Amino acid sequence: MNRFHGTGVALVTPFNADGSVDYTGLKNLINYQIEGQVEYLVSLGTTGESATLNKEEKKKIWAYTAEINNGRLPLIAGIGGNDTASVVDTIKNFDTAGYDCILSASPYYNKPSQEGIYQHYKAISDVSHLPILLYNVPGRTASNMSAETTCRLAADFKNIIGIKEASGNFEQFNQIMRDKPADFLLISGDDPITLPMIALGASGLISVVGNALPAAVSQLVRLCLQGDFSSALPLHLRLIELTRLAFAEGNPAGIKAALKHFNVCGDQVRLPLVSATTGLNEQIIAELNRIS
């Protein structure tokens, strides 16, 4: 589990102008993250626009990402959904070559009870050949996974090794840290609150902003994990405005605008998302120039 301490980056999926997957851009992005010294990568999380990719595209992206990474960093596959049977089938048949873990978001839209969430993850745990990270993101799912449910899953299933927590609820973080098994990982799912979460005991961050600024974000996280918060604080404050801008018109439009500025990949997204407006794009570029 030490492989998932530090900075993970939830990779965007680059697209060509015609909407097809841009594999050259994806290769550039993976190498850019490795050069930025992040600790691990997440393929096809929310930031990867997985909701707009079909099954064949997902399989090809997962395989290509593993091929380009070539074992250089630990690799996590994002596999979630609101149909438990479908998620179970995908995980059961997932080609694990090159992958170290599954990140699975709590079911969205259905608004299951806490028992429903527990049973959903139990079904996933029963079939997964890889360790599992839970993912709680109630701002997207319209359903919060409680600290009690998180810790119950952590205690009952040894292959559930941690949670990416993006609820923004520090009362919930406190409960998880108090009640979880000692080796269960609490990982920040929100860039701007990573510093205080690590101060509480989180093991790091799965970042969006790290797509564009992997070196800066990974340095911030390493300093926090070393307990050097006096050195980490100026970096944290420096990234606040870019983080705000990156999410101002939805994710990943803003961070793709930043990646285009750095010539890593284009800024195309798939509907129903749209690219950053001209005004936001100009603000992002100005902020990148200011902090770079």
UniProtKB/TrEMBL annotation:
The keyword Zinc does not apply. It is found in: Cytoplasm. Its EC number is 4.3.3.7. The keyword Amino-acid biosynthesis applies. One of its GO terms (cellular component) is cytosol. It catalyses: L-aspartate 4-semialdehyde + pyruvate = (2S,4S)-4-hydroxy-2,3,4,5-tetrahydrodipicolinate + H2O + H(+). GO terms for biological process: diaminopimelate biosynthetic process; lysine biosynthetic process via diaminopimelate. Pathway: Amino-acid biosynthesis; L-lysine biosynthesis via DAP pathway; (S)-tetrahydrodipicolinate from L-aspartate: step 3/4. It comes from the Bacteria. Pyruvate binds at T47, I206. HAMAP family: DapA. Catalyzes the condensation of (S)-aspartate-beta-semialdehyde [(S)-ASA] and pyruvate to 4-hydroxy-tetrahydrodipicolinate (HTPA). This is 4-hydroxy-tetrahydrodipicolinate synthase. It comes from Pedobacter antarcticus 4BY.
